[in-house]
Design a protein that fits this description.
2 copies of one chain form a homodimer. In chain A, 10% of the residues lie in helices and 39% in strands. By secondary structure, chain A is mainly beta. Chain A has a single domain (21-142), classed as Sandwich (Jelly Rolls), CATH 2.60.120.10. The N and C termini of chain A lie far apart (37 Å). Strand 8 of chain A pairs antiparallel with strand 1 of chain B, so a sheet runs across the interface.
Chain lengths: 147, 147
């Protein structure tokens, strides 16, 4: 199935995994795939690190996310609630739930996010979903709306 | 699909995840499922914590493991090699590879291990596989052979 031998041991060097495979994602967010399709797995384990004051895409989709925070501080929007997160907090993002991971203003936010290899593409929120977030002062103060 | 509402946010309390679901596994090893079948996921994210001087089962199986070390120090046997591990090291255990996670003598080893929900049962190593481990002094000094 795989032509190249993928390493079985990916040591962490204090900052990153030199044997992971970096992916382009969005500005101010580092994305590294630790395990996935290339290992013949049905799921993919990705590490994301968001710079202070930035966020992941504000989106929803059919596939689910399992998230484990590894570094820093930040917030996670899940539907119509926002949670303050710290290392080792675990977060489940169910199907079609609007979500965003947001780094704090002064610390990056690093986390792993596990998904199925076969998954649908993210879609933006509806006008109604955006309106509900914008009308809630707590959510509106944390969520990043720019694409 | 699921009858009960599972929490979307599982905070870490400095020691464990009170909202995870603990499972019986083997003596001296704590096992907590953070996400899995109950969330309607195709994969399962389990946290294991092995007490100092103990180990996971010495086994092999068709399903693969994706492992991320979270706490402590220890060793991972993968086939005919052993790796010293520390937090955030990532380990891939391919199909049918004999493996064991071993806590150091003075620190527990905590890690998450991700697997498919649908998976085969583990099987013990063959006599030949055991012999090869026992004949290698480095492996033999670390691996725990008792069931």
């Amino acid at each position: 199935m795989k032509r190249k031998k993928w390493p079985v041991f990916l040591p962490y060097d204090g900052d990153t995994w030199p044997d992971g495979y970096p992916m382009r994602y969005r500005p101010y967010v580092k994305k590294i795939v630790l395990f996935g399709k290339r290992n013949g797995l049905n799921f993919e384990v990705r590490y994301f690190e968001i710079e202070p004051g930035y966020a992941s895409s504000l989106e929803k989709h059919q596939h689910q996310h399992a998230v484990l925070i590894l570094k820093g501080r930040g917030y996670v929007l899940i539907g119509d609630r926002i949670y303050e997160v710290k290392p080792y907090d675990a977060v489940w993002i169910p199907s079609w739930t609007p979500h965003q991971l947001i780094a704090s203003e002064d610390e990056p936010l690093g986390f792993i996010c596990i998904v199925d290899v076969e998954r649908d593409r993210p879609t933006p929120l509806s006008e109604e979903e955006l309106r509900r977030i914008k009308e809630d002062p707590e959510l509106a103060s944390k969520v990043k709306f720019e694409r």
